[in-house]
Specification:
The protein is mainly β. Helices cover 0% and strands 49% of the residues. A hairpin with a 4-residue loop joins β4 and β5 (66-78). The mean pLDDT is 92.
């Protein structure tokens, strides 16, 4: 013991963070429906890991209105069966348009990662139904128009044709609760007539 000097030494080592990958699973859908966005966080070997995801959803609606839903925070954890939970956003009913999802991850001992993707909310198809009352003798026919789905707004154009008359036009008639009712302002000669209705659509519904 007395023949040796006391000696010390120092060495360093590094624990490097592991690379990660965050994926986004989604489906385009049609207005008046909802959809889920599922996020998965993996290490470089493809194993699912827990962590924090920061999500921003932005978009431009079909009429040019900007949409922003920023700073959605998801905490990915594991349940009692070791399955990842907390990784899903259920979207509200969004107006028709084009949207962008931006996600970034935070996880201890892992390198942050980001991902961006786009999805579309399509316009719903509108359906026009129209009825007109028959007239006996001298009278005025009543025309009823209804647009499906119930939330349709905007204007319609009505055209009455038949029996050799010049087309009768009723243009730019405003819907109320998806419906419009009018009584014609003129009597018609005896005969058969057809009522045509056109609906140009709105920000969430296609024309019909």
């Amino acid at each position: 013991l007395y023949n040796y000097l006391i000696a010390t030494n120092t060495s360093q080592f590094t624990v490097s963070p592991i690379k990660t990958n965050v994926t986004i699973t989604y489906n385009n859908y049609t207005y008046n429906n909802t959809g889920d966005i599922i996020f998965d966080l993996h290490d470089e070997d493809g194993n699912s890991i827990v962590g924090t995801l920061n999500v921003n959803i932005t978009g431009i609606e079909s009429d040019g209105t900007a949409y922003n839903n920023r700073s959605i925070v998801l905490e990915l954890t594991r349940d009692e069966n070791n399955n990842i939970i907390g990784n899903t956003i259920t979207l509200p009913i969004l107006n028709a348009g084009n949207y962008t999802i931006i996600v970034s991850s935070e996880s201890t001992n892992y390198v942050p990662s980001t991902n961006t993707t786009n999805f579309t909310v399509d316009k719903a198809q509108s359906v026009v139904s129209v009825t007109a009352t028959d007239v006996t003798g001298v009278g005025y026919s009543t025309i009823n128009v209804h647009i499906e789905p119930e939330v349709s707004t905007g204007q319609i154009n009505i055209t009455v044709v038949g029996n050799g008359i010049e087309d009768i036009l009723y243009q730019n008639r405003y819907l109320s609760s998806s419906s419009y009712e009018m009584t014609m302002d003129r009597t018609l000669a005896h005969g058969d007539y057809t009522v045509y209705v056109s609906y140009p659509g709105d920000k969430n519904h296609n024309s019909s």
